[in-house]
């Protein structure tokens, strides 16, 4: 099990103590009607993948019910989510691009960054696989095959974590797509998948969104499992010193929930069509001490 930083853990325990005292002070007969002081509304910017996959619909309601609060979700690309955090327009962010998350924290915009779950990216293509991407050994070889072919390739081109990984893969593969066959769409994941399906284009997707939409798409996974497709999600609280009006108590309570045992178990149990869409990072392994 990964360990959280001592400073972050101490901060979280203090805030949870305040939250617990607030909850215990509420009359038992009216808990559902009352809001826990400090938690009333929590604004979270998150990636479209956590929303499109249906995970948040399972993960957030128990937290909201317990604390009598509401989590307002803004589902955007990682780049936009971090920008909302920089401006103090949200209380926390849930994102998946380590290369941009670390500077966000080091420059003082965020606090208590915790990696809490993972899934993977998949390269998708039309069932006929005109580029022969399924026949090669790695996702980088598959991208090279797509670039050599006359097939279409679609990029979200929206500053998202998925687009950042697609750009990285393209760089690692050392390929450039013909502009006439490279569709740069500036769309979220669900809309991008719909367009790729309609156009018969190859596209990189997070697995969760693809599984959630699979029955509506004429797309198949053409890449094999690869370490470079590993996709880690983090939660980060917006710095209350920089933005005093943020709901820091609420943000830390929600971070504690998704990184704690209950939230981690709910992530582990969430499935669609029999498939686990996300995997918790902070649950103890069986037999671990």
Quick recap:
This protein is an alpha/beta fold and 289 residues long. It is built from 11 helices and 12 strands.
Question: Which structural class do you get from the secondary structure elements?
Answer: alpha/beta
CATH class of the largest domain: Alpha Beta
Global mean pLDDT? 88
The number of E-state strands comes to: 12
H/E series, N to C?
HEHHEHEHEHEHEHEHEEHHEEE
Characteristic key phrases:
11 helices; about 290 residues; globular; alpha/beta; about 40% helix; 2 domains; ten-stranded mixed beta sheet; two-stranded antiparallel ribbon; about 20% strand; D-Maltodextrin-Binding Protein, domain 2
Outline the fold blueprint:
Elements: H1 6-24, E1 41-47, H2 48-52, H3 55-67, E2 70-76, H4 78-87, E3 92-95, H5 98-106, E4 110-125, H6 139-148, E5 153-155, H7 161-173, E6 182-184, H8 189-199, E7 202-206, H9 207-213, E8 220-221, E9 230-238, H10 248-259, H11 261-269, E10 271-272, E11 275-276, E12 279-280
Parallel strand pairs: 1-2, 1-3, 5-6, 5-7
Antiparallel strand pairs: 3-9, 4-7, 4-8, 4-9, 4-12, 10-11
Helix pairs in contact: 1-10, 6-7
Structure description:
- This protein has 289 residues and is of the alpha/beta class.
- The protein has two domains: 6-119 and 232-280, 3-Layer(aba) Sandwich (D-Maltodextrin-Binding Protein, domain 2), CATH 3.40.190.10; 120-229, Periplasmic binding protein-like II (D-Maltodextrin-Binding Protein, domain 2, 3-Layer(aba) Sandwich).
- Helices cover 41% and strands 21% of the residues.
- The protein contains eleven helices and twelve strands.
- The strands form two sheets. Strands 1, 2, 3, 4, 5, 6, 7, 8, 9 and 12 form a ten-stranded mixed sheet that branches.
- Helix 7 (161-173) links the parallel strand 5 and strand 6 (182-184).
- The protein is globular.
- Mean pLDDT is 88; it is low at 20-34.
């Amino acid at each position: 099990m990964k360990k959280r930083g001592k400073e972050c853990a101490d901060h979280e325990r203090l805030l949870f103590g305040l939250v617990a005292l607030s909850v215990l002070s509420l009359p038992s007969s009216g808990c559902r009607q009352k809001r826990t002081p400090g938690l009333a509304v929590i604004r979270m910017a998150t990636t479209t993948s956590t929303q499109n996959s249906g995970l948040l619909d399972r993960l957030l309601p128990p937290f909201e019910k317990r604390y009598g609060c509401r989590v307002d979700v803004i589902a955007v690309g990682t780049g936009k989510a971090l920008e909302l955090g920089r401006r103090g327009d949200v209380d926390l962010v849930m994102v998946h691009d380590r290369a941009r998350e670390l500077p966000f924290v080091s420059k003082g915009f965020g606090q208590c960054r915790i990696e809490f779950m993972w899934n993977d990216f998949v390269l998708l293509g039309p069932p006929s696989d005109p580029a022969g991407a399924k026949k090669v050994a790695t996702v980088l070889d598959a991208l090279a095959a797509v670039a050599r072919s006359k097939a279409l390739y679609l990029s979200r081109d929206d500053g998202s974590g998925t687009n950042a990984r697609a750009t990285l893969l393209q760089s690692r593969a050392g390929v450039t797509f013909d502009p006439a066959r490279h569709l740069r769409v500036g769309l979220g994941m669900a809309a991008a998948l719909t367009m790729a399906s309609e156009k018969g284009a190859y596209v990189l997707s997070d697995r969760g969104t693809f599984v959630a939409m699979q029955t509506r798409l004429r797309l198949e996974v053409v890449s094999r499992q690869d370490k470079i497709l590993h996709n880690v999600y983090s939660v980060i609280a917006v710095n209350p010193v920089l933005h005093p009006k943020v709901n820091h108590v609420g943000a830390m309570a929600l971070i504690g929930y998704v990184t704690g045992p209950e939230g981690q178990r709910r992530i582990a149990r969430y499935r669609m069509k029999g498939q686990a869409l996300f995997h918790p990072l902070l649950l103890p392994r069986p037999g671990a001490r």
